[in-house]
Protein 1
Amino acid sequence: MAVNVLTLNNFEEEVLKSKTPVIIDFYADWCGPCQMMKPIFHSLSDKYVGKLKFMRLDTEKDEFLAMKFRIQGIPSLVIVKGNKEIGRIVGYAGEDPLKAKIDEILEEI
């Protein structure tokens, strides 16, 4: 499954109107842990086809959305369903711990 780029221009269509929960990776190109998380995020996207939509948002290019979600540290992963945040994971995590955290959040919805 592909990881798509999220911007202010496609936020409504990709997140608010999505029938599937969305996980947004808030990152910046200069952030070392964000770059380490990128291949893990892409790998996990293949494991959640049809269950979770994977999006990445560059906090340097779309500061408004980062502020809207009150992002204070990156990498931050925010899981959204409709217009409601249902989970948040802050900081770098390896693939297995990250998958466990995502699964835990998804079990609650």
Note: DSSP finds four helices and five strands in the chain.
Protein 2
Amino acid sequence: MELTGKQKRHLRALAHHLKPVVLVGAAGVSEALVGHVTDALEDHELIKMKCGENAPLSIKEAAAEVSQATGCAVAGTIGRTAILYKRRAEDPEIELPKA
């Protein structure tokens, strides 16, 4: 899923007040982590993922791996936090600006 700059800015603004719901730990991007991200995206559409200090990957590498595994889009990374978005198939809540 590819987002335009305008759509990324919109999603980053919506995610500003959110707390991270997924933490990448020493195990890195595992199947369990991908499962948690998938569930969280289905529940919320827009989530934050934080990379712990003992994680073997940088936040950009972890976000890229999770994005590839789940089909979500990375709206941005700030420090050790990534913002992930995936439109819900049924009953989507977030309306993206037109491209």
Note: The mean pLDDT is 94.
Protein 3
Amino acid sequence: MKTIFTYKDLIIWQRSMELVVEVYRLTTNFPKSEMYGLTSQMRRCAVSIPSNIAEGRRRSSRKEYRYFMTIAYGSGAELETQIEIVKRLPIGESLNFNLVDALLDEIMRMSNKTLSTLRN
């Protein structure tokens, strides 16, 4: 097992960074009319996930880490909902969500496990 020295060593942070890139790629295909709507909202949610993981990991206590992981988990749920909205709209008909869905699912499972560990 690899020793964790910094938040950058966390697999969940690494996958979250991949997710940010994929959300940016996906949303570049949205119509310009969504620039200040779903595009902006989805990008902010995606960025929030690794940002809160990093901030929580750098905090001085387990309680603070748990708090920021909870925020990251909430941002993931928000992003899941926004993806579902896009899938139901005409703009989502020609988009490929496979990689974003897979990464987000993995991140949400890891977040849930991390939060469970931090509660104990």
Note: Residues 10-20+35-119 form a domain with the de novo design (two linked rop proteins) fold (CATH 1.20.1440.60).
Protein 4
Amino acid sequence: MSEYDLLKNLGLALLKKIKTIVTNKYLLAIAVFFVLSFFALDNTYIDRWNNRNKIRELNSQIESYDKQIETCMRKMNELNTNKTNLERFAREEYYMKRTNEEVFIIEDEE
């Protein structure tokens, strides 16, 4: 037997094994399911992964907004308790002044 015949027989045997694997209806059904679920359908696993990452990002934003709301509510309660606090806040944040009063704003260059 020559090398050519040996390789030919080996190739034919390998092709027969590949044919039995490819024509297996259960394996084919599983392969089609995975292709559809990962790439072709509307709600693929890739989309689910992206949506899960978006949900994590949005939850972190919600936490930061909740912290901001809490600090603003605390500041609002503090301002509503005393009129002098409200006046001080208006002067510092919005540069408001009383009538017949001049306000000089000095900013640091740092």
Note: Residues 31 and 77 are 62 Å apart (CA to CA).
